[in-house]
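Case study 2.
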Amino acid sequence: MISNPTLCALQFAYEGHSFEENFATLSSLVSQTPDRGIVLAPELCLSGYSYDRMNEAAAFSRNMLPKLAKLSHSKTLGLTLIERKESCFFNTFHLFCDGHLVYTQAKAKLFALGDEMRYFHAGSPEDIRIVQIEGIKIAVLICFELRFPALWERIKGADVILVPAYWGKQRKDHFETLSSALAIADQSYVVCANSSDDSMAASSGIITPFGEAYRDDRKSVITHAFDRHEIQTMRRYLNIGLA
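Prediction:
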């Protein structure tokens, strides 16, 4: 069991770059994070929303799985990838730990304004759940899923909630408000990793169970220590049934 790993949110621009360039950027940033850290990358950070190259993006993502597993040596790494199953494409979160793929979860709430419903098949909300990784209870909400309070209820009791995102600049305040509210409501750490492309909100960072937000739009790696005692204190202090 890891008692106090470092929570790490990555933030970088990747639209208009080749898949290979994006993987190189991801690799460089992951190498800057500490051992035993929990590292989150932005939504579809290798390919972006490559609607005109879905087969190519899915094949590239599949081929990168061994390299992503290798990047997770001595740490935990999460990101979403374009995945093809038979004739359907999914936006699937992959969680790697110590060189192994340990969990996947397809995005269940697709963003209509981004045409996701035209190109992706939705996962099931029933698959959104808490998983335990090295003694820490982790849950995932992918971008637009952050807007659904019913999903917050499904993951109450998580120690850390990961939110990989490709969230637009016009709704920057929404992203910050909702992620902070989720941390307060679920009395958990929330780690948000968003794109820093010009049209995106950035606002990546870590929010504590007390609602303290550590965000920095200028940084590519934002870190904050996980403290289990802080979760326990908050849940005892304001007991909503999670203590």
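The longest strand covers residues 76-85.
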